[in-house]
Design goal:
This protein is mostly helical. The chain has a two-stranded antiparallel sheet with strand order 1-2. Helix 1 runs antiparallel to helix 2, helix 2 packs antiparallel against helix 3 and helix 3 packs across helix 5. The radius of gyration is 21 Å and the shape is elongated.
Amino acid sequence: MRIGDINMSNGAAKFGSIYFGIFGAIVLIFGIAGFVVIGVHGTEGITWGPLEMSGMFLVWEAIILVAAGVIYLSSVGNFGDVRQLAKSVAASIMIWIVAGMAIWAMIAGSIPGGEEGPWFNPPGDFIASYAPPYMPAIFLLPFSLAIIYPIRSRKRAEARGETKNLGETGTLQF
């Protein structure tokens, strides 16, 4: 008996399997690239176009991105199952936490002025501090929000009563 089996639409399951398979590979590549940057350049890192891989927490970001990529890739088989969907949700939350940390660092760094300047940044410098380059997790953040589609599809299937492995009373049968 499988707990929580609900028929997600085939379209949503197929979308989730393909999308998160590709996205998981991209996340994994960014994580591995973080380790390569650490090995070659240390915490000073590199900036390539709008992408920046540097900082004291680069090793942790790389570990988290590798883990999230592996979790995404492990979730693509039988994506309609609640356990596989939960893996993708967990990987998305990992990206949200790392991106949130990067966004918070950007906000916190934009408020104070320089060491020899005023206590607060003037408006021009404040706005300029939000310009690129950005950490990889910030680029991955909007694409990780696609997890909302399979979750909503699953909730719609629940609302329609498309459940299986539940008895007439709605309790699990073993």
